[in-house]
Amino acid sequence: xxxxxxxxxxxxxxxxxxxxxxxxxxxxxxxxxxxxxxxxxxxxxxxxxxxxxxxxxxxxxxxxxxxxxxxxxxxxxxxxxxxxxxxxxxxxxxxxxxxxxxxxxxxxxxxxxxxxxxxxxxxxxxxxxxxxxxxxxxxxxxxxxxxxxxxxxxxxxxxxxxxxxxxxxxxxxxxxxxxxxxxxxxxxxxxxxxxxxxxxxxxxxxxxxxxxxxxxxxxxxxxxxxxxxxxxxxxxxxxxxxxxxxxxxxxxxxxxxxxxxxxxxxxxxxxxxxxxxxxxxxxxxxxxxxxxxxxxxxx
Length: 299
Fold this sequence. Notes:
Elements (H helix, E strand, L loop, with lengths): L5 H13 L2 H8 L3 H15 L4 E4 L2 E4 L1 H26 L6 E7 L1 H18 L3 E7 L4 H4 L5 E5 L8 E4 L3 E7 L1 H5 L3 E2 L2 E2 L2 E3 L20 E3 L5 H9 L5 E4 H4 L6 E2 L7 E3 L1 E5 L7 H15 L2 H5 L7
Parallel strand pairs: 3-4, 3-5, 10-11
Antiparallel strand pairs: 1-2, 5-15, 6-15, 7-12, 7-13, 7-14, 8-9
Helix pairs in contact: 1-2, 1-3, 1-4, 2-3, 5-10
């Protein structure tokens, strides 16, 4: 019987968490066939079936449930080993892995990363768009930008300016509708996804307005609002720069969210990660007026 290797174990964990070969392959950046082959190798080495297929995806067998804790222990050991190696690295070269919400990376962060790589051409930066703290805890990212009032106690970092959201619509749409206090005949654009019941509108300036359409992606919402389909809530660093959108007159901020630049304590002594984190915090802080909405003009 051959011994399971680390790839077999991490693929087992990806399958257990994602419950599909396709999802595991996407998360691990592997092909479908590679994931299937490693699963077969692991089941052969253990002499047991770990998953059965169903219409709802992969179902973990009793054996899979029994070995899960030991597999996660191996994963934690590998993460600790990697972090220790990175923390001892004192050269300004090598990878820096960053994870942050998609809109933030697309609209604000990329020019900063471009400037950083000009200064430090031997550092390779990779960006993964995600909202999960698991990226840091599982060692798949070195630095995370996350919206959180109280960050995980196991992480360290710096608080950035509070990111502020406002209500936006096109000028023509605003002109075609009436707004009286918290009442309006305008409609919100639906977000779909995890908030299909639209509970979020209760926190907006117009809590009783109707909701129409369904645009889970924030960029799609912005474009739909610019096209005159309704109102949407956007971070002001994004909404204020769009030429066909303005803040709905008389409205106050919908929300203010603290954003943190975080890393794992074991990585603080890595020169390249420490340098990148300091650079990112400095550059984002320079954008405070755009982030908090101080540069926006109510129309």
